[in-house]
Design goal:
With about 110 residues, this protein is of the alpha+beta class. Helices cover about 20% and strands about 20% of the residues. The longest helix has 17 residues, at about 60-75. The structure holds guanosine-5'-monophosphate (5GP) and zinc ion (ZN). Guanosine-5'-monophosphate binds near residues 5, 31, 95 and 96.
């Protein structure tokens, strides 16, 4: 999608510090980290939100979680603990309309989120 920021990051038209990449997914460091480790994990296919997730793409959800596990191990937050967050829609504060998982760790996280 031409005016999607995360699609531009996938296409390397906007720079980002990449943590993991393969043909299906991309993980990169958040520009405004909310924890010592704050990665954004996205499918390369443009899907705007959970509301727009097609049934035939359900496999990518499981796959993204396996990549989150791999990233957490590599970034050494798997044992201390980490959080996966999807902000979906306005009330949740979704600012970028390309589905993304926040991978947050490296400090004690508060619950519930604000
Ligand atoms: P949301 O609020 O949609 O769940 O999360 C969007 C995230 O994207 C925010 O945490 C924000 O800091 C991050 N972000 C916004 N613009 C950029 C950018 O240009 N580069 C990177 N790496 N992250 C960005
Ligand atoms: Zn996109």
């Amino acid at each position: 999608m031409t005016d999607c920021l995360f699609c531009k990051i996938i296409e390397k038209k906007v720079p980002a510090k990449i943590a993991y990449e393969d043909d299906k997914v991309l993980a990169f460091h958040d520009i405004s980290p909310q924890a010592p480790t704050h990665i954004l994990l996205i499918p390369k296919k443009h899907i705007a939100s959970i509301n727009d997730l097609p049934e035939q793409d359900s496999a990518i959800i499981g796959y993204l979680h396996l990549i989150a596990k791999k990233l957490a191990q590599e970034l050494k937050i798997d044992q201390s603990g980490f959080r996966l967050v999807i902000n979906n829609g306005l009330d949740a504060g979704q600012a970028v309309s390309h589905i993304h998982w926040h991978v947050l760790g490296g400090r004690k996280l508060q619950w519930p989120p604000g």
